[in-house]
Amino acid sequence: MTNMLIDKVRSIQAEQKKPSVLVIGDLMIDHYIWGSATRLSPEAPVPIVNVKNESTTLGGAGNVVQNLVALGAKVTVAGVIGNDAAGIQLIEILENEGVKTNAIIKDNSRSTTVKTRILVGSHQLVRVDREVTDAVSRELEDELIEKLSANINNADIVILSDYNKGLFAPGLTQRLIKIANEHNKKVVIDPKGLNYEKYKGAYIIKPNRKELAEAAKTEKISNISDLETAAKTIFLQTGTTYLIVTLSEEGMAIITEQSSILLPVKATEVFDVTGAGDTVIATIAYFIALGLPVDEACELANHAAAIVIRHVGSATTTIDEIVKDMDGY
């Protein structure tokens, strides 16, 4: 299948198709502080960090967005942020990436989620989170629905990127999926939490092994039989068409109510799995939006994940890099 798939991807590249993807999700800022630590504080038994460098990037659903942009998609993003400096910075980063932000709503009652990581060398000393995870108000839900109604017709596919930060309350999640389905738009979900019933009606749900075990209330998932048993619970709750389960060093599984396929891992080196799930869901959605079947989109996503986990921190990849990885496999 590999050579035929490479030819298909190259044909898509030649046509310069750019799918339109609507990402609805929990948006946040990842703030990194790098420094050195050679002595302890006289005030408490903690290291003193002498700051050398700082950087800011998108986190949460923003990492999904950046993966889509790197692949070449036209992206519109929707979500709720605070009416604060971090929110202004978040929108500025998105707009600099060429992303449409007109469906992002500012909530005066919450702060924009910021995760600050303080690192000495490659060691993370501490992470400081600033966030409000309360569910958004009904008024903001209605405002978001109104904005999305104006954007959804232009989308080829819809991604819900749930980081459990208050956006995807069951009622709003069902409203979003219903609107997408009414417009014949496939919904692809990166889930969080234990309540998968709120994802009822989605086309694809993509948990990792641990998330699936917790949602299905299963002690462990150690083989394909365990996967299929846990998946039955999710199919009963959601009626989803596909359950795609990422299995870390073992690759991923594509499960339907009738069958299951195991795609072995493509990675030759693993440095950091941070953000790999975002790369997987972005790549799957991107290629489905271009008309590829789910199994081929997952094969490409498996190679994309293999590329990004060779890097430290969240990373993105391109179609050229995916094709090169497939050529050398």
Structure report:
This protein is an alpha/beta fold and 329 residues long. The protein has a single domain (2-28, 58-114, 132-327), classed as Ribokinase (UDP-N-acetylmuramoyl-L-alanine:D-glutamate ligase), CATH 3.40.1190. Helix content is 38%, strand content 26%. The protein has 10 helices and 13 strands. It has helices spanning 2-15, 61-71, 85-96, 138-151, 170-182, 209-215, 224-238, 276-289, 294-308, 319-327; strands at residues 20-25, 27-36, 50-60, 74-82, 100-107, 113-120, 123-130, 157-161, 187-190, 204-205, 242-246, 252-255, 260-263. The strands form 2 sheets. The protein has a 9-stranded mixed sheet with strand order 5-4-1-8-9-10-11-12-13, with helices on both faces. It has a 4-stranded mixed sheet with strand order 3-2-6-7. Helix 2 packs across helix 8 and helix 8 packs antiparallel against helix 9. The model has no long low-confidence stretch (mean pLDDT 89).
Give a summary of the structure in a few sentences.
The protein is 38% helix and 26% strand.
CATH superfamily: Ribokinase
CATH fold-level label: UDP-N-acetylmuramoyl-L-alanine:D-glutamate ligase
Taken together, the total number of domains comes to: 1
Number of strands: 13
Please give the radius of gyration in angstroms.
20 Å
* Alpha plus pi helix count: 10
Sheet with the most strands?
Answer: 9 strands, mixed
CATH architecture group name? 3-Layer(aba) Sandwich
Helix content: 25-40%
- N-to-C series of helices and strands: HEEEHEHEEEHEHEEHHEEEHHH
Strand content: 25-35%
